[in-house]
Amino acid sequence: MKTTIKINPTKNEEAISQENVILFHSTESTSSALFLDEDELEYVQKQIENDKAIVSINQLGRFVHVVNIKDEKDKNKAAEDIRLLGDKLQALVKDETTVHVLFTIEDKEKALLLIEGLALANYTFIKHKTDPKPNKLENIYLSNHDEIKEDVAELENTVDSVYLTRDLINEPFSHLTAKELAESAVQSGKEHGMKVTVFNKKKIESLKMGGLLAVNKGSIDEPTFTIMEWNPKNATNKQPIILVGKGIVYDTGGLSLKPTANSMDLMKTDMGGAGTVIGAMNAISANKLDKHVIALIPATDNRPSGNAYAPGDVITMHDGTTVEVLNTDAEGRLVLADALSFAKKYNPELVIDLATLTGAAVAAIGHYGIVSMHENAIKEHAQLKETGANTHERLAEMPFWSDYDELIKSDVADIKNLGGPHAGAITAGKFLAHFADFPWIHLDIAGPSYTKAKYGYRGKGATGMGVRLLYHFIKNN
Q: Is 333 known to be catalytic?
């Protein structure tokens, strides 16, 4: 269900009669006096003196929630604390259809962060329930300040885009094949004015995308290769920024069948990179950024049918590189490699790929951040890392020494798709780097893309992590 974030249609705050209200505790604010009597104001003050972050007043017909933003020197921690406060507020207001967030213009940035956390926490995935019970909260209204209208529209579009990514990643394979994933990109393009092209299997064969075709050999469903392009007339970059998303809509491991208990339960999420890229493009185009951005999405499922590719096979990639396949469960890097070499035709300024690529990344840092590597993109990676700190979608940079190149050398082909038992996230990155002769950043989102337990305002299940990171990086850099 969509959460609407809008400016209050009236500037008369007293006109808000029986609906829930969230107030900022501030000496400059006059809103408290409008909604609380003297006894309530005294109670609120005592609770805040006792270090309460949220003070709730039951006025029978409605609740008034007063939030107390604590001082914090670290600006990024302060921002995340406010988003998490929004998550706590969501639990208090989720059964109401409307909430009004009232604040003085001096608290604008804090209010937008609070609403971001509140709106992101309000997401539910109930599509397949016969008795769905969505959160009732539909409308979040903000104080009517003329200065924030563009900020509010941007925030709503960005939250919608995170919702889109979460929907795609949460969707089971029974309802999201490679073709249907491509259709979701087409729909986003229609809504926001992007050019979207989808290559079918015949076209993919003509392009000799040997990685994507090899992974698809065990499937009864055809692969797709989707190109999403946002190229406004006022674009400030002469060369495009390219986003590449791994679109393995379901992964059994192929003939290297995943052996461990529960290892296939969540493999519907192996298209998390593609889902994140689609969401980011949705935000970029909905907010009409003045940047030329292209997304490339290779998609298929990975199954062990009679004609599936096998360990020991040698395949020829889109750029002519030969690859020895040692493990068919190391399939994501094969489809990404074809997309990376295809990206060369655009002479890109920068390429960023996103993928739920390795268990090694999860083992290294858990679900708390994104494992990153890069080549020829020192400045860009530093900027992306700074954006990650701002949005709390943080990057953990892995070493990318040339020593690791030795681990993917093959005796029978140019390279092999498995590096050995150690440094698995890094050797997967080294495999991809072979196909990237441009400024390039690799983001392994295997950890944070999906969580089994609630993770703050990111919720339980698909988190949508990466959408806000990419959007704000492209907007600001």
A: yes
